[in-house]
Design goal:
Oligomer: single chain
Radius of gyration: 16 Å
Strand content: 15-25%
Distance between the termini: 41 Å
Number of strands: 7
Amino acid sequence: MTGNRQSSWAFADAYGAELVDDAENAALRWARERAQQAGVRAVSAATGATLRLLAATAGAKAVAEIGTGTGVSGIHLMAGMRSDGVLTTVDTDPELQQFARQAFRDAGFAGNRARFIPGSALDVLPRLADRGYDLVFCDGDRSECLDYFAEALRLLRPGGLVCFEGVFANGRTVDSAAQPTEVRRLRELLGAVRESDALVPSLLPVGDGLLCAVKRQQ
């Protein structure tokens, strides 16, 4: 990658970081610190800004998030959603969800704006309503991404968006060398999304790769 492109990506990340107000900035910094301490991934500023844009573009009132983490992506999603929108967020780690709850509160969101569900996504998602969501954001176990994809197609209303974070896998997805199962699953996901007649897809080079697709109107 050229130095100019690296500089452009750094500029894009900084630009995204400048789009939030002081309360959100403080909450995002706090949530990122908790994520670093816990050893979990947090979306980049550019990825967060993109999620905020997509949620706003969709006029999202109901969003499902796989992988609460410490609340970084959730802050961006709720900031883009309608003011009466509800984020349903799923994570296997209740302690991380407590960090996210605090981050959401510090960012100025009312407690009823987020519904926290602890547990495995593959146990929780089947209980959510068909066509009940405007956006599904997937940032969970990459080895389960194909299962998330199948559930997202069911959960999304026509015109809704599905987004998968981290599909570049730090460059391993396009590396011809032998790769672990999670990377092979990401490659299969990329193919499945591109080949689906039900979707209009795009792969965005923000953060570690954001795969997005709109469910066609029927």
